[in-house]
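INTERNAL AUDIT FORM
Audit reference: QA-55
Scope: verify that the stored structure record matches its stored sequence.
Auditor: D.O.
Record contents follow.
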Amino acid sequence: MHVLIVEDEAGLANELVHFLTKEHYTCDWASSGREASEKIAVNLYDFILLDLGLPDYDGLDLLAETKLLDHDPSVIVLTARGALEDRIKGLGLGADDYLPKPFSLLELQARMQAVVRRKFKLKTSVVAFQGFELDTSSRKVTYQDQEILLTKKEFDLLHYLVLHRNRILTRLQLTEHIWGNILEDDYDSNYIDVHIKNLRKKLSTHAPTDWLETVRGVGYRLTA
């Protein structure tokens, strides 16, 4: 998942990037409110981890700004402002969770997973579709208890399609989810087609994959 960390303390930001990257998230960092505002205007984020005490911006204003976006990223407020009135105001403005500093990185990850389960109405970390099972905790895909070996990008792509099943996802959306900020990188939309082709090949050795549809000229849709 594509995460924007909005944090002016470089040490904490680097710690977050290092930890979340190890846990297979794709991370961007903004050290100021202005930088964060520019990034959320042009990138599709799944999560925004938001410090309220920014040098040039009130984090609550930035939170309100995210609610105007079309793609509705999940927001967890990370802040030393732990007063009850701040928590109430943050949650009232649409934050999905509120975690006072200092916090455990493992607790943060657990809260992010809980937010995803609530957002996509999942009861557990295991999602079933067309006889396959995708375990978001162990990052394994199985068919009738037989594990299917996927690369990191293949798993991330399938995970994103499963979460957004029955929705058409454009190549741009899928690319940003897997590679992050494409404006700063050498972008080639064919990357997605190659990974989808490889994914179909691996899954189809176990069962038909006609539920993974190509939407001509747009992207892909999972209808399982």
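Auditor finding: record pair retrieved intact. The mean pLDDT is 90.
Action required: none
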